Amino acid sequence: MLRLDRRTFLATGAAALAAAGAGSRALAQAPIKLRFGHPHPEVDSWHRAGLRFAELVKEKTGGSVIVEVYANGALGNDQTMIAGTRGGTLDLCLTGNPFFTGLAPQLNVLDLPYLFHDRAHVARVLDGPIGNELRAQLEPSGLKALATWEVGWRNVTNNRRAVTVPADMKGLKIRTTPNPAHIEAFKLLGAVPTPMAFTELFTALEMGSIDGQENPVTLILNAKFYEVQKNLSLTKHAFTTAPLVMNKAKFDGLTEAQRGAILAAAAEAATIQRQMNVDAEGTSLAALKEHGMKVVETVDIPAFRAIVADKVKADFIAKFGPTLPEQIAAAAS
Q1: Which residues of 61-89 are buried (b: 16+ CB within 10 A; e: fewer)?
Q2: Where residue 333 falls among pLDDT bands split at 50, 70, 90?
Q3: Which residues contact 155 (CB under 8 A, 6 or more apart)?
Q4: How many C-alpha atoms does 292 have within 13 Å on its Cβ side?
Q5: Is the pLDDT of residue 35 over 90?
Q6: What is the CA radius of gyration of the chain?
Q7: Which of 8, 127, 191, 192 is the most exposed place for a label (fewest CB within 10 A)?
Q8: How does pLDDT run across 244-285, given as a tens digit for each residue?
Q9: Residue 215 CB contacts under 8 Å (≥ 6 apart), including other chains
């Protein structure tokens, strides 16, 4: 029989304990991986800023949290990703504010037509108490809104005719978001609003099942809508924001330091993403012209505003009261 002396036994036991401890520490130190999905193309500011967000999270958490970014609706369309993030099958998602208004109806205030004067006005609202209040309204739905990014100024494209005055909109079947403010505005203009996920839009335009759509010039270029649309009118009828949200239970399960790092990274990336859009607007418009789009730059915006702004705002006030629209108006200067 093999006999172990006491020193050999103790040394062997210590080595085994040390190995077990090292294994436990390795498991404890394994980074937390978060999947982040969005519907825009890889060339768009959402993806480029999303990659920067991932870098910032890694830096600020010392590598303890890793974010993997998926573009082009690879993890689902707008509503699917929101549902997945609420349910925990997806960790983070980014999409336009209109897709969240079914969960937090007062978010609809941000989509009222001709609400914002300029981007400085937008930033004061999103990054101040109003933005904080609106983001918090998503928490009962299981979402932690980390920051608010942007889609930008929305403009109309279509394949039937140039749009210069409101009467040109009559009868056009236009893809909109499912947001009540967007739908009502296009009804008032005599168009036929057709809510649809962004990931389905190019095909619908290509097949001719709708006449047109409305999005910022940067996204019109990045999504190659110029391949299936002839006319672009710079209506700038609304400014669309985009909450970056995380599964709230997943967020709450992180350490305090990790939560703070992710919030800081999301806010920093929001500033980066918005500036990307500012920088790209002029060159995007020029590129769309080069691709053959006929651009109407002298749209009768006062006429559009007169039809939609007060009426859609009045509908919101009837449901939720005047406080939020008044606070946003006061933030204009």
Answers
A1: beebbebebbbebebbbbebbbebbbeee
A2: confident
A3: 214, 215, 216, 217, 220, 232, 233, 234, 235, 236, 237
A4: 8
A5: yes
A6: 24
A7: 8
A8: 999 999 999 999 999 999 999 999 999 999 999 999 999 999
A9: 151, 154, 155, 157, 223, 225
Q: Whole-angstrom Cα distance, residue 309 to residue 314? A: 9
193-206 pLDDT per residue, tens: 999 999 999 999 99
Tokens representing residue 15 in the block: 């080595």
* Listed residue (288, 163, 161, 286) closest to 236, CA to CA: 163
How many CB atoms are closer than 10 A to CB 230?
15
pLDDT of residue 236: 97
| 303, amino acid identity | A
Residue 107 reports pLDDT greater than 50: yes
> Phi and psi at residue 11, in whole multiples of 5°?
-65, -40
Residues 212, 158: Cα–Cα separation, whole Å? 4
Average pLDDT (26-46) is: 89
Question: Distance (Å, rounded) from C-alpha 213 to C-alpha 61?
Answer: 40
| Cα 143 to Cα 125: distance, rounded to the nearest angstrom | 20
State the CB neighbour count (10 A cutoff) for residue 129: 11
Six token digits for residue 24: 């436990």
User: Domain extents for the chain?
Assistant: 31-330
DSSP codes joined into one string, 274-323: HHHHHHHHHHHHHHHHHTT-EEE----HHHHHHHHHHHHHHHHHHHH-SH
Q: 219, exposed or middle or buried, with CB in 10 Å at 0-12, 13-18, 19+? A: buried
CATH number of 31-330: 3.40.190.170
**Residue (of 144, 17, 28) closest to 82 by Cα position:** 144
Residue 140 is given by DSSP the state: G
On average, the pLDDT of the chain sits at: 93
Count of Cβ atoms closer than 10 Å to residue 137 Cβ: 16
**Joined tokens for residue 214:** 């409305």
Distance (Å, whole) CA 72 – CA 123: 27
